[in-house]
User: What shape does this take?
Amino acid sequence: MLIVISPAKTLDLESTYKAPVVSQPDFLPDARKLVKHMRSFSVQDLSKLMHTSEAISTLNVDRYKQWLTPFTEDNARPSIFTFKGDVYTGLEVETFSAADLKYAQRHLRILSGLYGTLKPLDLMQPYRLEMGTDLKNERGKNLYEFWGDKLTKAINKDIEAAKDDILLNLASNEYFNALDKKALKAEIVQPVFKDFSSGQYRVLSFFAKKARGRMAAWILKSRVEEVDQLVKFKLDGYKYSKNDSTPEKPVFLRKQ
Assistant: This one.
């Protein structure tokens, strides 16, 4: 089973970590092209493009200026220890053993606007570039056109390497849309997490994101390999609902 998740805007650039190995992103040449392009943006340009404050835009203009290769542990960090949004709060990578991290290296991929795909132990430098950004570039009018079919081919290669035909989508639509679903050589399974609110079960973004991270961690640490085992997921009060589920979209409900 190969899992895909989204990156996060919030980054951790200071905490200590223990990684059994580190690796390099597969698409560094493409990332260099994007970084070179992003260096042409002023603070005002970046703020308009990304709809961010002047402070955030200034920070990221500086990040693109300072971005350099080769990546080493002196100037970069493994991706899994760098992203710190809601999904990663649920993931709790600090509880992973060395064996868990090595397993995750084969079975988890992070989709990224700048880096394309990242393995958990791929080194990265800080950035902000969301996949849905309408960034005109040499390959098209946005990042989806910049990446084209490269990410789909990379994920297919990873699926083949994992010797499985299940792709578990725990990413947001913004990032999963960077893949060509028809060209993916796997059965796509997309879990849905709903909380009881205002008299009905509904997807609440904050809780759903954290639940995606919790499920990813549970799969990786428990070495879950069969899709029918997903019904056993019961963390944080979520329970599988057979009546609300389909094979492609297993639904997990929580009533607090």
Remarks:
- The chain has a mean pLDDT of 97.
- The chain has one domain: 2-12+19-25+77-254.
